[in-house]
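Bug #77: duplicate submission created two jobs. Keeping one. Sequence:
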Amino acid sequence: MHRACLISFLVLFASSLAWGQQPATPPPAPELWFYYSTNLLVPENLVPLEAVFRRAAAAGYTQVYLTDSKFGKLGTEPQSYFDNAAKVIKLCNDLHLEIVPGIFPIGYSESLLYNDPNLVESLPVRDALFVVDKGVAHPVADPPVSLPPGGFSDLKQWRFVDPVVHFENGVAHVTGAKGVNARAAKILTVAPFHQYNVTFRIKTLNYHAHPLVEVLSPDTKDSLNDVDLKVKPTQDWTTYHVVFNSLEQTQVMISFRAGYTGSDGEMWWDQPAIEEAGLLNIVRRDSCPLTVRTEDGKTLTEGTDFDRVIDPKMGNVPWPGGYDVWHEPPVLKTNLPDGTRLRVSFCHAITTGDGKTSICLGDPKTLDILRDQAKRIDALFHAKRYFMEHDEIRVLGWDDACQKTQLDSGAILAANVHNCIQIMKDVAPNATLYVWSDMFDPNHNAHDHYYLVKGNLAGSWEGLTPDVVIANWNSEHADKSLPWFANRGNHQLLAGYYDAPPERILDWLNAARGVPHIDAVMYTTWENNYTDLERFAQIVRSFH
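Kept job's structure:
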């Protein structure tokens, strides 16, 4: 510092003291967190865990947000699991790392649904037509529905066919699609609140885009499905299924896309077909009843007029709490005369994204499972902080349990997070609670037209109290999101990294300038990539 500048600074400093003012104090450096997901049941997993935890402690991290799918079903774990957990707790105590356990996985709920797969958030089927033939009632599409019987043979029967898609002998051949749309679509008339199964085959050769099938409302373009087909860049003919519920739609547009931006290489579509999916993934719980009646209005009795209906694979593939897109559905067996027409109503599970399923927020039994989890997690960790894992809830508000609340989806979610906060205050009254931001942020996912959520998620934030810390990952709209939560009185944690160059955290930190109560920054990896752990910490520390 130059001498003249130093003298001026001292004069101003003395003047401020003379008037009883204190010099401005910069905000404290934020805490450094890192995210770690593991399976503590496997002893071998403790080896890489210890290595990462030691590196993190040496780099200045003080908190680890720890998740484990076993956290949702601790009542079923052997003693060896708790022995391994004790080793991790001791390690963290030695390293002065504070464990912040994940709790209440609402949105990615497989671990909770292990306890009762029928508590999955589901979609309703109403008055689907089944016709009896030789002791079995089979689903019949009403109105009839089909894709062109010749597949991709007649260009005139398809819409929005892009120039890079060539119809050849019933096969759609895509080539030269890099950087452009590659699709063929068809609008079909369907019955509202019916479950349909779309089948097709795909073959690829050095094709690196992501083929998908979109089922859309022709008017609003809202999507009725969201499944990753996991097509390999090079593969022989492989059959796929896309299952969707028509919900309120009487027409849908089924779009076969070779990816949004296409790719070099080649791919082929073949044998497109559609049918009603019957009793696939039928949910059996009191709050979502199965109703079977004749067309003249007589309600039939399960166990008397027809055999009890159970889908043994529902919520059990590949393990309890897991749900697959398609398997052969159960049948409805009855001694009624051939040709008897039945109307069947029920609720069914459906997967979104990469197997995302949420536990039902409208069924009171869900709270019993959440209370049990809270008690078991707190008994294991006795933590000072807990991280509520409400995140990307893509199905909500449609099934009978949710409908009986007479609340919009935002209010249903608000009630749930309010109940979760109260559960934790009862179990661990002095603990600080954290929650992911997206489902409570109107600048992110808390709005209408969000995947398969009924109505509007607006108002979900009303269930949050000001003492809950927001783990904000809405970096794309940081200029709106950060002040939004700050104005509501919530402290915030910045969830950064996301397996991108660590320097990108600077955008987050710059956006947070002037926003009060940004208390922590987290190294968040979904790929278990801890390569940049030290560099990330250095960048955050240097910023402050």
